[in-house]
C-alpha cells in the first residue's frame, strides 16, 4: 500500500495518491493532472477512483480532466450536485482499491456535501482518514462558505460539531489525519504548519476538539472569521461544472512586445501583475503594475486582490517563471490571461518606455528616521489584524492588505507613509497598489516587522479599536 501526500506550498493544499495492488485512488487533485497520471504509469497502476471531499472554493480541481484522461470514476459524498456524471456516494459506502477499502463518512458543516474518506488497510485496520476541509491540523473548516437562505453560519457550525463528534472523534486515536490544507489557507483561521497528525494528538491540542457544548463550539469556530476571498464562489461553480485543461489556457497566452503590451493595457483595461521579487521590482517596473511575487503566496493573493475573476490579466516575469505564472493563475481560476511582456522589464526599458520605482529602506534606516522624528512617523502595518495584535510598532496603524482598497483614506497624501508587513512580501504589494492609485509619498520597509523587531524601535501589543472597513 502506498499513501502519498502531494503538498503544494503556495496553495497550502494537500492532494493524495493512494495505491494498492495495481489500483489507484486520487483525493482532491489539483488542476494540472499529469503528475498523478505519470506516477500511476510509472508504477504500472491504473487510476480507478477520484475522490472529492467537497466542492473546493480556494482552487480549481482537476477531477474532471483526470477522469476524462484515465476513465476513473469521480466520487462525491451525499448532497453533491455537480453538472457532470459521477458517483454520489451514500454515507458509509465502501470502495475497493486493490486490497484496501475507502469508506465514505458524510461530515456536513464546512459545506453540506463535505465528506471524509476513511482508509482501511489490507489487514482490515483503520489506518488514516482524509478529512478535506472538515478537520485541519489545529483547526476545523470555516462554516461560512456554504450559507443559503435557509442556513446560517451558526447552523453550519452546528452541523460541523455533530459531524466531528459522531463521525471522526469516535475513531481510534492512532488514526493519521490527512487534511486538504495547512497554514496559509483561507479555508480556516488557525491551521498548523504541520500537514498531518494523529487524531489522538489533535484531540489534545486542537481547540475545536476540546470538551465543550455545541453552543460553545459554535462561538469558538465563528469568532474572528474574516470575509473569504472574492474568488471563492466562482471556483465553487467551476468545480461543479468542470474546467478546461491548463494546456488550453496556455495556448491562448501571447508573448507581447513592449508596444503590444502597452496597447493591450490601454484597450483591454487589463490588470498588470509583476511577478518578480519585491526588492527587484522596486528598482524599475511598468507604471501602474502590481507586484505579487511568484516566490510567495502568489495564487491566494491574486484571488484576494483581483475581485473580478474574468478581468483580463497581463504579467511581467522572468523568462524561467512564465509557465509557472500561468499555471498558478489557472489553479485559482484566473484563465483570462492575455499575455506577458516578451523579454521582460529589460525589453520595456530598451524600447524607451517609462518606468516607475518605489523607495525601500532597511529596518535600521527606518529606526534612525523614527528616532530623529521622535516617533512621529506615519507607519502603516499591512499584516493581518491578529499579527498586529500580537505585537506592532508603537503608534502604527493596522491596514490589512486584504482590505487595502476599502481603506485608502487611512493613507496620507501629504505625509510620508512608511509601510511594512512581516517580511517584505505583502508590503511591496501594498506599496505598488498605492503607487498605482497616485500615492507617491510611500516608503517600503524591507524585511518588515521581523527586521524592525531587531532594532530599538518601540513596540507595543496595545490595540485601539479597529477602524478597518472589510
Draw up the topology in text.
Layout: E1 2-8, E2 13-20, E3 23-27, H1 34-42, E4 46-51, H2 63-70, E5 73-76, E6 87-88, E7 94-97, E8 100-106, E9 115-120, E10 126-132, H3 153-168, E11 176-179, E12 197-198, H4 199-205, H5 214-222, H6 232-241, H7 246-251, E13 254-256, H8 258-268, E14 271-274, H9 278-281, E15 290-291, H10 298-305, E16 313-316, H11 322-331, E17 337-341, H12 344-350, E18 359-361, H13 363-372, E19 378-381, H14 385-390, E20 392-393, E21 397-398, E22 417-420, H15 425-436, E23 442-445, H16 448-452, E24 459-460
Helix pairs in contact: 3-5
List the defining traits of the structure above.
single chain; 470 residues; alpha/beta; Metallo-beta-lactamase, Chain A; Oxidized Rhodanese, domain 1; six-stranded mixed beta sheet; 16 helices; 24 strands; 21% strand
Describe the structure.
This protein has 470 residues and is of the alpha/beta class. It folds into three domains: 233 residues, 4-Layer Sandwich (Metallo-beta-lactamase, Chain A), CATH 3.60.15; 106 residues, Rhodanese-like domain (Oxidized Rhodanese, domain 1), CATH 3.40.250.10; 102 residues, Oxidized Rhodanese, domain 1 (3-Layer(aba) Sandwich). It is built from 16 helices and 24 strands. Helix 3 crosses helix 5. It starts with a strand and ends in a 10-residue tail after the last strand.
